[in-house]
Design brief:
Elements (H helix, E strand, L loop, with lengths): L1 H22 L3 H8 L4 H37 L11 H16 L12
Helix pairs in contact: 1-3, 3-4
Length: about 110
């Protein structure tokens, strides 16, 4: 799960940087600077306000994708604790039960073999 989180860090960094570069050139930021607002005040009131909403949206969308990525990895027995509960692990065990019930042999050593 840590690997899935680390893979998504560049998305947050890239979007945050793009937002900061865009917002710092907007007219109301330039007007604040012209009226004598300090850099800390501009960053806190104008830029951080935009970043918080962006990060909340990205985290909300990324959470669903991360859950699906972890489920996919655990389905193929690649990530996570093999004895722990998980959507992908449970689906893989269900396929083992289905194969045994139909007379097919399960080969867990080769997870990509159908």
């Amino acid at each position: 799960m840590i690997a899935v989180g680390l893979i998504n860090v560049p998305v947050f960094a890239r979007q945050s940087r793009a937002t900061v570069l865009t917002v710092r050139e907007l007219e109301y930021v330039l007007a604040s600077r012209a009226f004598g607002a300090t850099s800390v005040r501009i960053v806190w009131r104008e830029i951080v306000h935009r970043l918080v909403s962006l990060i909340v949206v990205l985290a909300t969308l990324g959470l669903g994708a991360a859950i699906l990525e972890v489920a996919g990895l655990s389905f193929f027995s690649v990530g996570g604790d093999p004895t722990g509960a998980g959507v992908g692990h449970d689906a893989g065990r269900g396929q083992d039960h289905r194969r045994r019930a139909s007379g097919q042999h399960s080969d867990r050593a080769s997870p990509f073999r159908w």
